[in-house]
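User: What would this chain look like folded?
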Amino acid sequence: MTTSSYGGGTLPKGVRSRMIHGVNSLDVHILEAGYESPGRPLALLLHGFPDLAYGWRLLIPILADAGYHVVAPDQRGFGRTTGWVNGYDAPLEPFSVLNMTRDALALVLALGYRHTTMFVGHDLGSPIAAYCALARPDVFPSVVLMSAPFPGPPALPFNTADSEVPAVQPNSANQKLAAALAALDPPREYYQQYLSRRQANDDMWRPAQGLHAFLRAFFYVKSADWPGNKPHPLQARTAIELAQMPTYYVMNLGETMPQTVAPYQPSAAEVLASKWLTEPELSVYTEEYGRTGFQGALQAYRVYSDPDLNAELCLFSGKTIDVPSLFIGGKSDWGTYSAPGAVDLMRTKAATRMSDIELIDGAGHWIQQEQPVGLSTLLLDFIKQVGGADHASG
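Assistant: Here's the prediction, encoded as structure tokens.
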């Protein structure tokens, strides 16, 4: 399993795989390009679930050609990055949002940079990128959030000193929503709740249809290739509203994720037409997840549903992202709307210098794979606009 053979010949020319040792207790596997010339500005790309650094492979060379040193790590819990404990019963604290924020900070410093010039977080990488920009704007002087809008940090109760009413328990809203979804006909369940369960890893690691077929259906059904994706804003975080989303977001209660996506398995012709994720490319995902399973990747979902692990985020109560920011989604991605109201909160409250909200045509959830050229144009224009392209490492 040497990194020199990584990707089975599918990595674009100029992209290399290597390990960076001693990064916040991790040995971090990265894909990078543009490393040959010293002094290039740093572009750091954080992936989501169930992705890998490999998901950025089509974008990395484009940004390197534009003059960047481009680095995409396998995040804690994923791929070939080691130093985390794999298992449902492993401590969750290392997977907390702020510790994964420290991972990103430590990686920038380990690479010999004082700051990023381009910084992008996709899906689960989006909240990590958001907290990087909140906590260390000096190191992350601009931020691009993809697919997962950032509604702001949790708020501490305000002006309650003379109130007799006790503060609402933070998890009670989630419990009430779960009960309301389960009461629907047919009964439903939010995907994050399913992914937090003990059996979710085994369900996805050893599915009846095989790991490769499961991953193919999962990538397909969340892409613009699946005609069933017609996302639109939802009015409120209620069971009735959330149930409008496809079953890969709001699942049929009692079904596993592999069972959920199995009916949408693409045909041989549809697989052949998938230029953004060919069979040899999908095989890289199959090999990596076949080796590690999904538990490390799933720990983040358990962190988000644990009030104790999120209590530290209240340190940022009322704080906003004050560096230039941009949100990018896919026009066929429900991720933009899966947390009702989050886009508006991000635009009006959480990010004070958000330049725009861009939705890319012909992209579902996997924007950097489905539309890497369109994405690169938006990213490079944004950095030019904020004046970041003039900053080199230092």
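Residues 372-386 form the longest helix (15 residues). If you want, I can go into more detail on any region.
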